[in-house]
Amino acid sequence: MVGVIPVEVVGMAVPVPGEAPLMLLREPEGARRWLAIMIGYGEAEALVRAREQIAQPRPGTIELLGDVLAAFGQGVAAVELTEVRDGIFYADLVLASGTRVSARPSDAVALGLRQGAPIRVAEEVLDVASVQLEVEQEAEGPAADVLDTEAEVARFRAELDGLRPEDFDDL
Question: What tens digit of pLDDT does each residue of 77-118 get?
Fold first, then answer.
């Protein structure tokens, strides 16, 4: 795939209680654009477990898929979010053999996190579906080098609150 940008999984957000959670991704360098993808609660739980590398007594679906891939001598080389169409995000698992398997972004990212695979987003997806936020830092003190994540997420939520369904007509 041409034009992919590495991203980090920043975490999860629930903008309004009772609504679907958002998976938050961000460019670690450069424009530092944010990408928010709405996912289900079960997927959010699996994603958090994968991000924190929390082991379970029995494998969940993501762990099972990783075990099946390993049994066939495969692993996830990368996760790529490839497109957004009609407001729906699409992703590929890029296996060690180079084979690409289409997957939901939440599942692909969770499996990629479990396997330590890089997560990348097509530049075109970031161009149409991301927002850019400025990060404020403390001027002095021991926390001067640490991002104010709560303020950054609050600004991101404010950006999301200003979006209307018509804003996605060109996607």
Answer: 999 999 999 999 999 999 999 999 999 999 999 999 999 999
Separation between Cα atoms, residue 166 and residue 3, nearest integer Å:
27
Q: What is the spatial distance between Cα 155 and Cα 135, in angstroms, rounded to a whole number?
A: 9
25 within 8 A of 106, measured Cβ to Cβ: no
Q: Supply the CATH classification number for the domain 4-168.
A: 3.10.690.10
| pTM of the predicted model as reported, rounded to 2 decimal places | 0.76
DSSP conformation class of 161: H
**Cα–chain center distance at 11:** 8
CB 25 within 8 A of CB 7: yes
Hey, what amino acid is at 169?
D
